[in-house]
Amino acid sequence: KQEVTQIPAALSVPEGENLVLNCSFTDSAIYNLQWFRQDPGKGLTSLLLIQSSQREQTSGRLNASLDKSSGRSTLYIAASQPGDSATYLCAVRGGAGGTSYGKLTFGQGTILTVHP
Amino acid sequence: EAGVAQSPRYKIIEKRQSVAFWCNPISGHATLYWYQQILGQGPKLLIQFQNNGVVDDSQLPKDRFSAERLKGVDSTLKIQPAKLEDSAVYLCASSLEWRGTGEFFGPGTRLTVL
């Protein structure tokens, strides 16, 4: 069974800092990995999707990397802003031959607070 | 493009009562998912539909939860009878197909069972 762990559980930083969120998964047989943002009372918004054959994806101030063999992904946020405050969730979709084929398994999230 | 719609947004019921949630996916999306998100945890897949057929319901508590997808479009999730531990946010998501393209999530229904 796929398990996804995110570290840290919570992070509070001053505006302008660069920061890294970590995600690890136990079964490397994945199809893709996604990073989501969740604001209070709202649904999830997909930030970046990395296919298993890719190493990284970038969107604006966000950069996500994937090391499938070691079961790790990082989300890098550059020049953080108060508007980045939210919960960030990592999710992996199980690939062929894995324990969670086709299923999206989420981590528990990192609660990010960026203060002015 | 309209997003995934869900209703109601909030629901408070007493234990042993019944409740139903409704989801309208993005037009043309063949795959529909229901997730349960307990406070402080990531979403957990309850059931996945491909058109109007069930692909995965391995984590759906079938003794009390049921779901259907009418004509491969709208879907309803029902809990009967509800337990205290069912208090959670129920998220509906849809995608063009089950892999590769990513899911789009609705705002969720927050259920409180007293």
Strand tally of chain A: 11
- Helix tally of chain A? 0
Largest interface: A-B, 24 and 24 residues
Low-confidence spans of chain B: pLDDT under 50, at least 5 residues?
A: none
Assembly type of the chains comes to: heterodimer
Helix content of chain A: under 10%
Helix vs. strand class of chain A: mainly beta
Q: Biggest sheet of chain B: strands, sense, closure?
A: 7 strands, mixed
How large is the share of residues in beta strands of chain B? over 45%
| Rg of chain B, Cα atoms, Å | 13 Å
- Number of DSSP-assigned strands of chain B: 11
How confident overall, as mean pLDDT of chain A? Answer: 93
Number of separate helices of chain B: 0
Structural category of chain B is: mainly beta
Note the gap between the termini of chain B: 37 Å
Taking all Cα atoms into account, the compactness measure Rg of chain A is: 14 Å
Give me the strand/helix succession of chain B.
Answer: EEEEEEEEEEE
User: What percent strand of chain A?
Assistant: over 45%
The main sheet of chain A comes to:
6 strands, mixed
Q: Determine the fraction of residues in helical runs of chain B and give it as a percent range.
A: under 10%
Could you give a short description of this structure?
The complex is a heterodimer of chains A (about 120) and B (about 110). Chain A has about 120 residues and is mainly beta.
Secondary structure elements and pairings:
The complex is a heterodimer of chains A (116) and B (114).
Chain A: E1 4-7, E2 10-14, E3 19-25, E4 30-38, E5 44-51, E6 56-59, E7 62-67, E8 72-77, E9 86-94, E10 104-106, E11 110-115
Chain B: E1 5-7, E2 10-13, E3 19-24, E4 31-37, E5 44-50, E6 53-56, E7 65-69, E8 75-79, E9 88-95, E10 104-105, E11 109-113
Parallel strand pairs in B: 2-11
Antiparallel strand pairs in B: 1-3, 3-8, 4-5, 4-9, 5-6, 7-8, 9-10, 9-11
List the keywords.
heterodimer, A: 5-stranded antiparallel β-sheet, 0% helix, B: mainly beta, 4-stranded antiparallel β-sheet
